[in-house]
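Collaborator request, handled under Task 6.
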Amino acid sequence: MTHHQNFTQLAPMILSWKRCFAVSLCLLAYAPLFGCQTDSQTVKKIQQDTESTDIEGSLIFNNVTLEQADEQGRPLWRVKANQATYTKDKKIAKVEQPIGDLFQDGKVILKVSAKSGEVREDGKQIFLRGDITATDTRNGAVFKGEELEWLPQDELLVVRRNLEGRHPEQIDVTANEGQYLTRSEQMELKGSVQAISKDPNVQLKTEQLLWQIKGQKLIGDQRTHLERYKDNTVTDRVVANQTDYNLKTKVAILKKDVQLTSIDPPVLISSNEVIWDVKADTVRSNQPVQIVHQEEKVVITANQGQVDLESEVANLKGGVQGVGSRNQAELYANQVRWDIPTQKMQASGNVIYKQIDPPFNVTGATAVGKLQDQSMIVRSGSSDRVVTEIVP
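Structure tokens returned to the collaborator:
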């Protein structure tokens, strides 16, 4: 069969596709076979150096370019391949070693490559397989995996099987699958999700996470585990049901059953909402919060509070209650400053100190001391007048 016969058979198949899947078949001499159509998506040129072979109902072409345009004539995608095989019955183009451009509003937004692929449904779906790489030209994000699906009409790129994502300046991610919404530049990660942010090093693990590349955020609505590393050593561990981590400011807003465990100082901070400034090394909550010193067994609760993990100081406000569980000493106040390494507390505002053995119940304006060894000095409104001094 001659080249002219092969292209004559191929032309009706291509032009029968509803969206006129535009195929550049690299042979300028046969341009009139396709140029007679008026549709803006019809092939406008046929490049050189293409050979075709008709084998068992399929047409095979070497050095081929496939492309598709929208109703306005703007390109949707363009794929170059070493070889393309067209199955006449299924109207599928199978390509080898494809390299392509994916467009949005007529501009290239993604560059892709793979070992093999298929073009289906009149060019409405593109499948790529094996060593997938997709790079967003707008933000520099790179996605890798074993399978890629591009749905131009939905502005959706799906990467399956061992997804790896990377932003060179901010983060590395892995997941079972990712759905990239190209218009909003955000990736929905699903299944065994792990994200590692850079400078400082924070690792997140969950089952579902939204990576807002343009917005520079990680957002999760499932139980998420976070760990902060310094010099390859874990310094803080956090779990929460909702996570909003800003990759630019390094601030995490954590909600619903939040528990932050600091290794040094050895405290456990619990609340329904925590604002964790990773770079500044502070933890703040505007909702009821509990802090437990896991070695000294001292527990403090308050309506709100902030812990500076670098200086190891906690400041708590509103209905503050401190309990030294070893001897059941209790302290109540409006405000408390707690120096965690020394365990010294400075309390002010409606102070009440209770002690079981020996039994005491003392009130005052301020108090200074330690709960765990029952050394607490309570004063009245006048700072020069000592109302009660309790020493074990």
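The cover message to the collaborator said: "The longest strand covers residues 75-87. The CA atoms of residues 276 and 283 lie 5 Å apart. Please let us know whether this matches your experimental observations."
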